[in-house]
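Reading group handout, session on sequence-to-structure problems. Before we discuss, look at one worked example. The prompt was deliberately terse, the way you'd type it at a terminal:

> structure Protein-ER retention protein

The input record follows.
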Amino acid sequence: MDGDPAVDPELDSFSLAFPLPYRVGFIATLAVWGWGLNLHCLYLCNVDVPQLIRYPGRSSPQHIPHHGSTYRLAIALSALFSLSITLFWLCTWGIPERVIAYGWMPLSYLFALVVLFVVPLRNLPSGGRRRFLATLRRVSIGGLAEAQDGKFGDILLADVLTSYAKVFGDLFVTLCMFFSAQGSSTKRPDRNCGGTVIVPLIMGLPSLIRFRQCLIEYYRVRRAPYKESTGWGGQHLANALKYSSAFPVLITSAWQRSVDDPESKAVLHKAWIVAVLINSLYSFYWDVTKDWDMTLFASKRDRESPHHPFGLRDKLIFRVPNLYYFVIGMDLMLRCTWSIKLNGRLDKFSDLEGGIFLIEFLEVFRRWVWIFFRVETEWIRNSSTGLGIDDILLGDYQGKDDEED
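And the output record:
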């Protein structure tokens, strides 16, 4: 069982088989596969993602499509992961002392993973990686390109980074444990390594990046001539407020771990519940209403319009209304995975290494699904129809029936 002290006082059973550095690399590899699937599925739906993020298109039909290049990189990363973890298992055979002694091996794998992203290799796509790294450098300081230079790509990447906040925290913990005195990256993860403040700060950086981007958008709107379509910029301030709502969650969570008084812990726990509830529900509302342009929380007239299914919108690229309802429900559920801490039977699970990893994975999965509908929405906003020539819009189809009747 995960966390079983009988395994080793310095190692839990989950980390024995799947050390923290490999979890970080595994999720990073999944991210590349996920982006490839995003590109591929949206390509099949006639959504030109490269055009939306202002990435150069293919000059010839004979050139491999963008998702094909992404799959190539994902295959290389998967091969590296499989080779490294297999060698690790063969060298350690599940013996705790050997797992700890070979802590350098997963770190070598993470270094090789970074090299694959940074160093141009002949058989791997280099243009996409260069663009990604350039965007990451700009985004990492809260920068935001102009609309014609790929603003949507910056926003998309920064939003994705918020879902990898815990992964970034784990990466820091891995390095901190390895470089500490007599440390090893494969011991039981010490999430207080480096103090109780550093990890929450790292986890808060992605939200801070998006917060700054929202303020940049607000000031751009204020400096530009007034347009009714953009308004005075209040929506950007509301979006900034959404990202700032993550900070009380991190502060109260870190504060709980730093106090010993039971009464103080109880008060901080209640404050944390309030903070995380506000953050989750606010973010869910924004996903549905602003990021996906659904009418679920709009006025009754808009929500029950005959031109679209209840609570959705006129144009649906993925066609099946029940899919949208399912995704909305799933988004709410995965936004609230923290609620298992309130269950007396499940609260311990979220503190086990296996539980922590599962929650991280579910958040990454939620963001992967979110990308489909966020890109779909942006495509509809930026094109005359949002769909291919042969596609029939649900709203148009319903309107046609009304006319014929």
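Points for discussion. First: Residues 27 and 361 are 7 Å apart (CA to CA). Second: Residues 3-8, 385-405 have pLDDT under 50 and may be disordered.
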